[in-house]
Fold these 4 entries.
Entry 1:
Amino acid sequence: MAMSCSSSSVRLRLNLAPSRRRTAAPANLQVLRCVGMAASPLRLCATRATGGDARQPFDHVPRGVEEIGEMEEEEEGRRRRRGLKIAVVGFGNYGQFLTRTLVRQGHTVLAHSRSDYSAVAAELGATFFTDPHDLCECHPDVVLLVTSILSAEAVLRSLPVHRLRRDTLFADVLSVKEFPRNLLLGTLPEEFDIICTHPMFGPESARDGWGGFPFVFDKVRVGDCPARHTRAEAFLDIFAREGCRMVEMSCAEHDAHAAETQFLTHTVGRTLAMLELQPTPINTMGYETLLRLVDNTCSDSFDLYNGLFMYNNNSTELLNRLEWAMDSVKKRLFDGLHDVLRRQLFEGSPPLDSVSAAAAAAGSPPDDAPIDGDLDSDNDEEELE
């Protein structure tokens, strides 16, 4: 009998539970029924009421394309007004040189390098990060690669780009352009923007300002979103505000020109340096120019010069042309000298001194050489008259 009561009580509880769920109703619905109003579906309004957004980054809530674009544009406008947050990756001499201007313009600079430049960064008004993970977690607007050409690939692959925002802008300042272009396109996610640049100046040449110096850039990949265009223009505006001559050209076109404007200049400067030229009491303006060329080119590291050769497809051809040009000049000189010697040996001409031989080699007959150092041909004609 006890067992029967026990089981009956259990059955009673099980039967009542569904009944309670069916009949129970929220208080607001009961009020609505009392006044004869139909109940409307319940909606969650907490996120709107608090003025916030409870969505997580992994939530995908459908939203109009125009609304997203307007929000991003407004956010980018706010960023531009307060300055960009720029991560300078490679905080050596050139990175510090650029940082001075970036900070002066009001941008936030986050610095990273293999060596510890914490003290230098603090002095310049930048924040230094020894760990690239910490750097990327600060979500910079722009990551600016200021590395050597030879180390660019290793440095880029060491960055945890998955910690960055998916629309981050990457830029570089390498002296060659096709190499970093292909490297960035092949390494970075397709959502990232890319601008390849080359400031045609350095700490020595632009120590008094950047005004008038060329700044070459190529917008390799910039998203269609207005906010991305605004950010790209804000980055380029850094150099335009300093008076740089803004030159937009493709990376391939840049390298074709740079083989002559840079690699040739460095090659001639380093070749002259092998001669160990020294100032003399009778320096000419041309000789002074050569001495300055040696100083300017040799003040840069050999790695830079080697990078200009290794990573520019046009450098090998230019080096061959330079060698051909030198051989052509030597041939012309020695051919003239050989002509003089042949006349002495086979035509019975009297031996010539060094000055006459040089004049003959240059194509001027010895008889036309000036007399008594008088180089004014008009005066000679007046005396003859």
Entry 2:
Amino acid sequence: MRRSYKYLLRPTSKQAAALTQCLEDHRQLYNAAMEHRRTAYAKAGASIRYGEQSADLKHIRADDPGGQGRWSFSSQQATLRRLDKAFRAFFDRVRTGRTPGFPRFKGRGWFDTVEWPKDGDGCRWDSQPEHPAASYVRLQGIGHVRVHQHRPVKGRVKTISVKREGSRWYVVLSCDDVPAEPLPATGAVAGVDLGVASLVTTSDGERLANPRHLAATADRLAAAQRDLACKKRGSKRRREAVARVAALYRTVRRQRLDHAHKAALALVRDYDLIVHEDLRIANITRSASGTIDAPGRNVAAKAGLNRSILDAGWGVFLTILAHKAESAGRELIAVNPANTSRTCARCGHVAKENRLTQAEFACTACGHAAHADVNAAVNILRAGLALRQAAEAA
């Protein structure tokens, strides 16, 4: 099993300056490789591949020993592979008829990660194991950087990445062969319905709250963004205002992530089988159809619903739930969400009139009444049990 560990770095002032320069040189390498591809195609119709650009690294490093030559060769290859991945994703979108979105040059605020593909090649985790009270990671050109290791690393460290978030630096370890930590069986099963009023409603009637972190911070964010809009571009005060806005968004993201971890852990501890809807969140949160001249119906309401769904963090929650279920040895099943909220859990009658309001469900055929989310969760559980039974019989 693979798992990632993220730790806060505590670099000295010289190391922080070196990390900043390392990030800047990798950004310039990325942009230069991007320009190389664009120019070759525009002038000669030639497509440049990763292998050719990787071969050019030797000459680039030799010509710039005090710049590009300082950093790990493998980390620079990882940056070139990152660009190659962006181009491959672009061509995949073209082939499938989606909006292409041509790869862009990276500005200073849009390149924040450097990766070392192999522990021991230009980097070394736990580089000073004899130290009694601290952990260190060694990075070529930067030195031994102290790490705030708040939990142990399990498995085998495969890749090491350094990421800048605001004024802080983090190291991210991707580890293979992480042992599972199975939980004792409970014998319980549950279907879960994701919502806005409650993040999760189970088929047992349990509800996990949706704290609406973005909504709670909306006033402070609006004030910070108004302040930002008044600042002159390129000024020190504008940079400070940008940092304040970024810090608020970072706080919201961390709060959302923390709540998702706690909610997922609660479900994994209580149930052996968890069934959820196979949601396409990008489709659900699309803007209302229409044009500027002829907008669609209920545009403002749709925008508000989209904002609430994204604030709830369904995608983050489902990803974390999948990882925790795998580690704990729990079974997770995703089912088709079609009509789960319109179907009566008692008689199976399907009609949009069954759901009176966001919270009320009343079947027009048999008169069954229940909370709409609980009714949907029961339908989700039944669909998941049917899928499991069909898979066992096959």
Entry 3:
Amino acid sequence: MEALIALLLLLRSATYGAQEEHPTDLGKVWKLTTHEIRQAEGTQGGAGTGKPTPTGTDKPADGPPPRDPQPDAPGVKGVYVTAYSAGGQRMATLLDLVDKTALNAMVIDIKDDNGYITYKTDNPELQKLGTPQPFIKDIGGLMETLKKHEVYPIARIVVFKDTVLAKKHPDLSYVKKDGTLWSNGKGDSFVNPYRKEVWDYNIAIAKEAAKLGFKEIQFDYVRFPEGFEKKADDLKFTKTADSRVDVVAGFVKYAQEQLAPLGVRVSVDIFGYAASVPAAEGIGQDFVKISSAVNVISPMIYPSHYSAGWFKQANPDLAPYATIKGAMDDTHKKLNALGADKPLIRPWIQDFTASWLGKGHYTKYGAAEVKAQIKALADSGVNEYLLWNAGNKYTPGVDY
């Protein structure tokens, strides 16, 4: 059954193109239909359930769970901040938002979706493989400003989606039979999770972020490219006998071990639907194995990511409360295998309008829709969350 689900994930990915971890204002999101999952599972979820039933077969990774290095940290309610915003005029508006509301954290791009290190660094280890771009002109000054405004700082590091490094070192990526670098339909390239040099490079960025004063390292794109099992045989790349799932989980565990002495939390972004389906073998993501190796797990449960039928909703984007509540129910069930050792659950929620879904399938997101998501989290026993808006324009008038 898991192989069949994985095949459906692959086919959907090949048909609709690459999914963004987080949607952009202009981008479309990949969605797996409930109908397809029900067909794959033989309607195990029951007639009319609108979602699959978690299998309950997931097992945590070996070894004890990581200790929280910040047990007295504040409950985080944060917003995503691009390097452009952090280093530009919009930062004043974002600081004002945090100062005047219950929001208290910012997730800031330190290595962005292209692979650029977003500030000037003199670290020779980072300069060897990295390509710094000073979008944040004064990283020290930024950290002082965050401290002054009592902002809990989280460094976002995009790991294996790294077009810059792939072009610079194709040997660390995937090469086609004609010798050219592989890229997806959007022109993005990934680097190879089997390469230890890639692990150490990203962890070196995380270590510098910790030394700069970031309290938490959030790893994103911790996976292989979409539909990788279909591409793998046609690509040249370094690999071992380890499965893709074990390699990805191994990176997360290794990162946590490397960063623990620095007193920073380690968190990982993961597709929200990963809590509702078996492990995605193709991209190497297993919800439970990854969760067992981090302090914080951040499933991306935007209502716009789910298509008709999920959580009994004809149009999930129109039902933010029910969609978030259903996603959280599945998340809790998925992590039951970890018992008291489950990580802190801090989801990403939607503060953008998904107009690309088409008329009748989306609604304009404002204060009511954001508040509905927050209420669904609270009713699920989850009180921390992160707001995503690609342009960093957040809805005013929300009671956080």
Entry 4:
Amino acid sequence: MTTPTSATSALPSRTFTNGSVDEDAIPGEDTSEVTKLFSERLQAWKHAIAYLEDYITATEKVNSTHGKEYEKVLKTVSSPLKEGHHFDQSLGGIAGVFENVRSNTQGISNAHFDTAKQLKGSVLPLFERLHTEIKNKSKELTKGAGKGSKAVDKARIVTQKHIELLGSHTAAFESHGGKMTATEDPYVLQRGVMHRLNRQIQEENNNRQDLISVQNSFAQFEAHIIQTVQHGLGQFMQVMSTMQEQKKAMYGDMVGKSQAVPLDFEWNGFIQRNSGILIDPSAPTRSVTNVHFPNQDHKSTQPLIAGSLERKGKIMRSYDTNYYVVTPSKFLHEFKTDDDFAKDPVPEVSLYLPDCIVGGCNGQKFNIKGKDVSKGKVGNTFSMNHEFQFKAHTPAAANQWWEIIRQAAGSVTNELPESSVPTSPVTSKTSPGGSMSNTSPVAESKQPAPLQTQNIEAKDTVASPTPLSAAPASGVEGKPGQY
């Protein structure tokens, strides 16, 4: 018996793009193509084993009648193999084994009852069990890799719909000048595409690994099939060894042909004939970083500024750090994180800046008064105006954020947000009557000036920053240009 060699060392064929080449978000290949091919191959093996079962059964019947109807045995193998294109038609393969069986069966003319009894009780069950194993393998393929292919198709449909949604709203951004709702913001939709694309690629890679496992297991399973066939025909030879010398020689020839088939002979021929369909396990897996899709780099998807800011809570009054971004659509979005893959990046808070009032920038802090429009049209109708208090990590960063927000805001005031009050001596403050009165910084810190929203000026007529000499004393020295 030949020694099996690795059936996966010469795997073909269809290679994926390497890691440096752009890939389509929705590949064009049929995800179930490999599964269908293996399912059809299992059918071919099942029919081949069915041929052998029929052959042994017919042999047993013919032997019980002393060879009078031995022509029936020949008829069971006279037809070509079903799905015969799956087998190598050259000498030395399964097709050659069946051809050899046909020629030797023609010369068998006598049979005995005892031989028929042994064939029915010991040889036939080997092939029946093998037939059952092939059926179970077919069910395993359908329930395993078949479901994975359906999951990939479903994920690709979801991704394609979101890409089309992004395309429609980027077109609307161009035609409407960027006026749209928060949920229609191309920046948010683009991040949604990345989220769904990541899930799709995970399904694709999982299905790919499943198919590679199935592909590798098929090599071993087919070796097992051929080994079982060889073993069954070997048993068949032992049963028939008591017959006439001529019959023994004929059946020995059939067994010799089957044992001469290398365990990987049919498999290697199969992968060579289907090199354009089977998967190459050495090809790299897909990565989101290498995938490009329409409007991915559209100017409406690129933030004007993005980073972490602190925002004072409405209840606890403590600052929480979140990820913020100002988009070309003039939205200020708040996200829990900048990770597009962990969860769907839907904004926690969205402020449409043209409808907001922006106060002055004081050190690291600045305030915005407006309505959270992140809940859609219905939520926006019942939403209330709130004052959002922000704090950057440095005064320079705060001024950078404030300047970009100011340019997009509908109105700007010179009111400064409350700032921390250092423990310094009492400073003087001019009283309404013109006299100087001493006020402690502690007393001032308890009464921060609220953001004024009455009688505000338009953005293009914003009053110049209050000079240092006229700025209200808050216990902290003012700096020129600090809003």
